[in-house]
Specification:
- By secondary structure, the protein is an alpha/beta fold.
- The chain folds into two domains: about 290 residues, 3-Layer(aba) Sandwich (UDP-N-acetylmuramoyl-L-alanine:D-glutamate ligase); about 130 residues, Mur ligase, C-terminal domain (Protein-Tyrosine Phosphatase, Chain A), CATH 3.90.190.
- It is about 40% helix and about 20% strand.
- It contains 15 helices and 17 strands.
- The strands form three sheets. It has an eight-stranded mixed beta sheet, with helices on both faces. It has a six-stranded mixed beta sheet with strand order 12-13-17-14-15-16. Strands 9-10-11 form a three-stranded antiparallel beta sheet, with helices on one face.
- α12 links the parallel β14 and β15.
- α3 packs across α10 and α4 crosses α5.
- It is globular, with a radius of gyration of 21 Å.
- It starts with a helix and ends with a helix.
- The relative contact order is 0.11.
Length: about 425
């Protein structure tokens, strides 16, 4: 039966359950010919910075002329953007075709094994098949969905692994301490496959070192084996220098703001260094500089309007908000900042938002159309911030802000990436109507 794109998405989303484990993925990939074994993969995990690190790496590879597949979740603007080639989402027609080509074998596998593949497992299998059989690529940048050890993406045998950092997120599934979460994420480390990390806590690094030693792999640690220096920043760009065993680059430019983005760029530069040294990657210094300069990433302190000044930031956990607070403190101290916040149910709102309390003038709490969205009233009551508002209709609140903000105001919309995606679509429609 031929399905429309909407019907395919509805079918896949109907399997939106969390089911950690690799047995079903291994079995189904065997059923469809193990397409993942044909791919050159860089596997990226971590609590924060996965998407930005992936994007910096992708920009450099594309600038050097390579075809780059990427698997990123969650979707921000469109469902199909989770599977992309050179930043272009898989077309709806190709998405349908890949789904159709795998449907009969999926049904056979599920009936025989008495299992049901989850939404994420379906997408992961489709991604591997698309990049290996349908539209071959030079490299695949593969972002874990949740955790690492039992994540569906962990069936891959990558050229290189990256763990950006470890923070307190998804504790109900990964563990209630950083050490437990680190062990889960360290599960992506494979025998003989190097690990690059931006983690700095010694207790966590000790876990990585132990895992790397057991797997006879190599470990590259930010500010030990490669580093950034001479960081300067303003409201438009950051400039920094990068040094590793393999290269030294001065006065690199980023348009993505925040000290955390310099760290993410350094992780990506180390990926490129390794690929150049051990995988014969061909890339020039000029290509590296150009790629970093023009790299942007949807929903990561993304400026969507100059007048009035509006930023979107998917700071969806404690570490994300802490990084956001550092950026506001160092680069936007002269602004009157109002915040619109929408989160998912499992977030500890008070602990999460406390770093913003001394930096912003107003926080508005809202909800959005998503199964796991927090109730606005619950988030509002959980916060001890004095100047807070309860917003039932975030679209109306944005329209009001657009009319009342002045030159010294900064309107920051933050929280869940699912919320940021809906806001971005809404703002794009408004901006288009105003043109």
């Amino acid at each position: 039966m031929t399905r429309s794109f909407e019907e395919v998405v509805d079918f896949i989303q109907g399997r939106n359950i969390i089911q950690l484990g690799l047995e079903n993925m291994i079995g189904f990939l065997e059923e469809i010919g193990n397409p993942h074994r044909k791919l050159k993969i860089i596997h990226i995990a971590g609590t924060n910075g996965k998407g930005s690190t992936l994007n910096f790496t992708r920009e450099m590879l594309i600038e050097a002329g390579y075809t780059v597949g990427a698997f990123t979740t969650p979707a921000v603007l469109s469902y199909e953007e989770q599977i992309s080639i050179n930043k272009e989402p898989i077309t709806k027609a190709d998405f349908i075709e890949v789904f159709q080509q795998l449907s009969e074998r999926r049904e056979t596998f599920e009936e025989r094994e008495k299992v049901m593949l989850t939404e994420f497992e379906c997408l992961t299998a489709m991604m591997f098949y698309y990049f290996a059989e349908f539209h071959p690529v030079d490299f695949v940048l593969l972002e874990t969905g949740m955790g690492g050890r039992l994540d569906a993406t962990n069936v891959s045998m990558p050229l290189l692994t990256v763990i950006t950092n470890i923070g307190m997120d998804h504790m109900h599934l990964l563990g209630n301490t950083k050490e437990k979460i680190a062990l889960e994420k360290a599960g992506i480390i494979k025998a003989g496959v190097p690990l690059i990390t931006g983690e700095k806590e010694e207790a966590i690094l000790d876990i990585f070192k132990q895992q790397v030693s057991q797997k006879r792999s190599k470990l590259y640690i930010l500010q030990q084996d490669f580093s950034t220096e001479d960081v300067t920043a303003n409201n438009e760009q950051q400039i920094f220098s990068y040094t590793s065993t393999f290269s030294k680059l001065a006065n690199l430019e980023l348009t993505m703001l925040g000290e955390h983005q310099v760290k993410n760029a350094a992780l990506a530069l180390m990926v490129i260094d390794y690929l150049k040294t051990y995988q014969a990657l061909m890339i020039t210094e000029e290509e590296i500089r150009n790629a970093l300069r023009k790299a942007t990433w949807k929903g990561r302190f993304e400026k969507v309007s100059d007048t009035p000044l509006i930023y979107l930031d998917g700071a969806h956990n404690n570490e994300g908000i802490a990084a956001l607070a550092d950026l506001l403190r160092t680069q936007f101290a002269d602004k009157k900042i109002s915040v619109l916040f929408g989160a998912t149910k499992e977030k500890e709102v008070e602990e999460m938002l406390t770093p913003l309390y001394n930096l912003v003038d107003e926080i508005s709490f809202t909800s959005f159309d998503f199964p796991r969205a927090a109730v606005a009233k619950d988030s509002y009551e959980a916060s001890s911030f004095n100047n807070k508002k309860l917003i039932n209709n975030w679209e109306e609140e944005i329209n009001t802000k657009l009319k009342t903000l002045d030159q010294q105001d900064l309107f920051l919309i933050t929280g869940s990436l699912y919320f940021i995606g809906k806001v971005k679509q809404f703002l794009q429609n408004i901006i288009q109507l105003q043109k």
